[in-house]
Amino acid sequence: MADRILIVEDDAALGAQIVEHLQGAGFETEWIDDGDAARGAPVDEFQLVVLDLMLPGTYGMDLLKRWREGSDVPVLILSARQDTSDKVRALKLGADDYVTKPFWPEELVARVRARLRRPDIRREGGALAFGPLELDEAGREVRVEGAPVELTRVEFDVLAALARRPGSAMTRAALVDAALDPERMGSERTLDVHVSRLRKKLGPAGAQIATVWGIGYKLLEAPPEE
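The chain above was modelled as a monomer; its predicted structure follows.
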């Protein structure tokens, strides 16, 4: 079954071009041309969303924030806004990629395929594997090159939150919400301490927890090359 892509773009000519190229690449598409109409879109029924920012009705950033409250669907921003601040804000809100207009349609198709492909991730007996790192969220077990690694509850929850969206930056605030008790230890500085300890426990695989400066952290799908 073909992957389904939701396109939220108000420019009629550009939207039609995106639909044509994605369908030509073998994807199923649905196109919405209004921000308000996209507010209630069932985004979890799609494998990826291509989202414009400057929309009539609800602003694209607000849509992204709304969706991230309940969904981890990959979102690729497509925008004429090229300011670094816009890109950083989109990533902080949970965007997975940011493509600026104008762009080559072939580039967009390549970005979509890259986001959906995830060649380095495999499931083995219910566990997710990222190179030498394996995580079984249901069993709350972590292994590196087959050897078990003992983690605290917070360390495991941080790693699990990153593993749900590998390759995508998560803000420190989002990780605090996902793993720390806000009434006892819910600070971003405390999170950094837990991440440091987690990296050490994972040994060589600890390098897969990459710092995204100004935003937070992301889990690399394989160890970085030396």
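The longest helix spans residues 188-202.
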